[in-house]
Amino acid sequence: MLLLEVKIPPMGESITSGILAKWHVADGDVVKKDQPLFELETDKITSEGTAEAAGRISFKAAAGDEVKIGQVVATLDSSATAGTEAPAAANSPAPAAAAKETTQSPAVRRLAAETNVDPATVAGTGKAGRVTKGDMLAATESKSKSPFPAAPVTAPAAAPTPTPTAPTPVATGERQTRKKMSPLRAKIAQRLVAAQHEAAMLTTFNEVDMSSVIALRTKYQDDFVKKHGLKLGFMSFFAKAVVHALREVPAVNAQLGGDSIVQNNFYDIGVAVSTDKGLMVPVIRDCDSLGMAAIEKAIADAAKRAREAKITLADLEGGVFTITNGGIFGSMLSTPIINPPQAAILGLHAINERPVAVAGQVVIRPMMYLALSYDHRLVDGKEAVTFLVKVKQAIEDPARLVIGI
């Protein structure tokens, strides 16, 4: 038997531990090389661990355990791979109890010791007839309900005349449930509170007429899809508008470094992505040198990897500005919280048709509210308002992005 250790891989110098959130396989399964084995949650990212070789897996840690980087959480028996197990002969005398004994997981053995239920007497529903934790719990429940053998069936006696009783209350679910915060959710909470406590945060608002951008998308969408294989979204327009505004108002592209102001002269833009684990902000590098298609592809790729727990710590670091779009969930207006050490964040919202005054006439236009939250220690009100106006102008008249005004 050749056993290989399955260890928690390194995630970066700042990550020393995490929570083994989920096993993607069952204890005792035969797995393939590169097959996803587990999901690890840290205070910064959620990632997957894969099998370095094929073999039968044996767990050394359970889902929900806190584990350290480098810790062994399972072993792989590389001598037991799919197709190498010979089927038992029909008249083989090998006892079922022995087979079950060799394939019990740690949870089954623990329940056997606690409940005095012999796994050999339990019908297994797992792979190859293995007894699972659920089988043991069901057997334990059955034993507690029927401590003695059932009596022989006899003819029922005449039922007594029932006496009126109060109606039995209808059972309801628990009024409250409780679960521990995941490391990622706890870190998000910590960072949000810290941002509000440490920064002099202020939000300024404006509204933007989306007519021009919508008209451009409608006119060129089919050609864009044919050439690039993906749709032209709104986010690439706003990414380009933000780069344009950062160039015009460089104070927004700065951050504090101790008692110094650090001026950024590059344009790595973070785009907030909602996942089932929480909000992540992958960074799109060098947005100033990327075309619309390249930005759309980078955003789509980053969002996919974030939702599939394949994002890396390097993908989340180094952004100079963040864009978050609450409009996809229907938000009309919000005050986003800055992503330290960045100086500002732009919040996008839902596009709604509203009556507006244009050249003395009331017309219906697709309007969106914009919100810019900024650190007043770095950015003055005039600079914040000017920045937001530059974004508004670039969206309402996208030709400005081409000619640079």
Please describe what this structure looks like.
By secondary structure, the chain is α+β, with helices and mostly antiparallel strands. It has 3 domains: about 5-75, Beta Barrel (OB fold (Dihydrolipoamide Acetyltransferase, E2P)), CATH 2.40.50.100; about 95-140, Dihydrolipoamide Transferase, CATH 4.10.320.10; about 200-405, Chloramphenicol Acetyltransferase (2-Layer Sandwich). About 30% of the residues lie in helices and about 25% in strands. The protein has helices at about 95-105, 105-115, 135-145, 185-200, 210-230, 235-250, 290-305, 315, 380-395, 400-405; strands spanning about 5, 15-25, 30, 35-40, 45-50, 55-60, 65-70, 70-75, 200-210, 255, 260-265, 270, 275, 280, 285, 320-325, 345-350, 350-360, 360-375. Strands 9, 12, 15, 16, 17, 18 and 19 form a 7-stranded mixed beta sheet that branches. The termini are far apart. Residues about 80-105 and about 145-155 have low confidence and may be disordered.
